[in-house]
Write a structure and sequence with these properties.
Elements: H1 3-14, E1 20-25, E2 28-33, E3 43-45, H2 56-69, E4 74-78, H3 85-91, E5 95-104, E6 118-121, H4 128-140, H5 152-159, E7 164-170, E8 181-191, E9 194-202, H6 211-225, E10 230-234, H7 238-245, E11 249-259
Parallel strand pairs: 9-10
Antiparallel strand pairs: 1-2, 2-3, 4-11, 5-10, 5-11, 6-7, 7-8, 8-9
Length: about 260
């Protein structure tokens, strides 16, 4: 197991604990979101679990436990570290996705991309709700509506240093007080020497301008400036992976995600 994958695996275990309680169950850790969390969590193979192969019975037992807790039937893992999980989940009737796992090359040169309207946001930035609304719309493949999300929890995690958020805008650099229009954004979750880039999305009308790559580059530059050594992300497919490879990310493994039948 490489040092990079070791750090990624440790990050995957530590990151949810800021907003979720960890329950040990069989070969898994089940993360149960606390009321203040903005999203539900999942289960993962236990960190340092000894490498015992996982079988379909383990996954079926996990599904029953997640049902008991009232949390989604969801499972995530690093395929290179837990190679038996994918087949076990499939045998239990779960839908499995295997995605490219990438980390920023130590030789990569990354810098903020304010030239493309991308900037990091402080906890008290008035544009935070606009950015998260644009991200939600981007993942939904629609343009943002008038409703804005509650960002009180996001402000708390930014203030605590658990989350860093970048936004892409038109009108960046306008006169003081002008918010501009949010076109997308993304986040990273620093934990010790590693951070994961997540939730990078751009609204449909602003795509094909290089904004997704610019958001990733700005987040990576922010993490590197803070001394983070391992900066990683998972891509939906090979085409998305190539976008991130153009700004210095390289493939280090495969991320697994599975959802159980309702």
């Amino acid at each position: 197991m490489t040092t990079t994958l070791t750090r990624i695996e440790a990050h995957y275990d530590s990151s949810p604990r800021a907003s979720a309680d960890a329950e040990a169950h069989g070969p898994f850790t089940v993360f149960v979101a606390r009321p203040e969390s903005r999203w539900p969590y999942y289960a993962r193979p236990r960190l340092g679990g000894g490498g015992r192969p996982v079988d379909a019975f383990d996954v079926e037992d996990l599904a029953a436990y997640q049902d008991e807790l009232g949390v989604p039937r969801a499972l995530e893992w690093v395929h290179d570290i837990s190679p038996t999980v994918a087949d076990a989940a499939r045998a239990a009737g779960w839908e499995v996705d295997l995605c490219p796992l990438l980390a920023l090359s130590h030789d990569a040169v990354v810098a903020p991309r304010e030239d493309l309207g991308v900037t990091m946001l402080a906890a008290d930035d008035a544009r935070l709700a606009l950015v998260l609304a644009a991200v939600n719309a981007g993942f939904g493949g629609v343009e943002p509506g008038p409703e804005l999300p509650d960002v009180s929890r996001d402000r708390q995690t930014i203030e605590a240093g658990q989350t860093r958020v970048a936004g892409a805008f038109t009108g960046l650099g306008q006169a003081a007080g002008a918010l501009g229009v949010a076109l997308g954004g993304g986040s990273h979750f620093p934990r010790g020497t590693a951070t994961e880039l997540v939730g990078i999305a751009v609204i449909p009308s602003a795509r094909r301008r290089g904004l997704g790559a610019a958001i990733a580059q700005t987040l990576a530059a922010d993490a590197r400036a803070a001394g983070v050594e391992t900066i990683f992300l998972s891509a939906a497919d090979d085409a998305v992976a190539r976008v991130y490879e153009r700004v210095g990310f390289v493939r280090v493994g495969t991320a697994g995600m599975a959802t159980g039948p309702a």
